[in-house]
Amino acid sequence: MIQVQNMQQPAQGVTAELYSQVEDYLALGKPGVENETSTQKSSTRKVIKKSSSKSTSSSGSVENTDEWTLGVKVNGKTIYGDAAEIVGRMVEAEMGASFQEEALKAQAVAAYTYVRYHNENGSCPQVVAKDDVSDKVEDAVNEVIGQAIYYDGKYIDATYCASNAGQSMDAEHVWGGYLPYLVSVESPGDTSLKAFGATKTFSESEIADYLEDYLDMDPYSYSDPEDWFSNPEYINGLYVDTIEVCGQTVSGRTVRETILGAQINSAAFEVSYDGDSFTFTTYGYGHGVGMSQQGADYYAMQGWDYVDILTHYYTGTEVR
Fold this sequence. Notes:
alpha+beta, 2 domains, four-stranded mixed beta sheet, three-stranded antiparallel beta sheet, 10 helices, 17 strands
């Protein structure tokens, strides 16, 4: 699949569990930065109210979007509104005021580009958005609103995720289509997070049920449990490209999203069996393609500005 407008992928922020940094920030264990003071946390502005959007509809069609007006879906409802207001709500949901200023700017430009890309291709993407936006986030958004990420003069599909596995993932190995700006790059800041090496344990009976549902067969008829998962092949560092599940070759993404119903953090995983349960050790949080939000924060702490961050994660692009 080469035509980027036909690429099937999860919308940014499909669930707060996977893509919202506000809820997951403490669980990911951001290193080296103290929490916001109570004064900073309470300093918010009502940037856009549900009743103040220009128009809403139940369809995903794009109506009258342009450089300063965006169309998105929030909780299944299509909203059209001022670009700065919508991007501010998105950045608050995806990061929040505890992130570094340059990381917030990078997220703002990526979010704006992501929506513009989809609006220009005739759709309103599903996003997460807060109603209240902090002063810090609003100020960062206002600094960069209207700037976008381009490849060959066109908006890119600026996907992002909570954190990568120390290295980002090639888009073609997740969604099937090669994009020159969504290729694997280093993301060292992610390896110091609690999400790097997080574990999730399932009982043998749980895994047996999941495998029976997916394979339409009793896994015990194939082999003993220690052989249900075997021969993983890795790509882009720690991401599972393929793995044999009861003798059938499936992708790591299939294990994570379909067999286990997104109950593990990432398709970068290792699996072990101890005699009565299976433990999945995961690296990173989310699909792994494009900008790592935690990686962006790490680079901002190293003195990188938002352009440095964006052109690192989106190869061969320019920001203007």
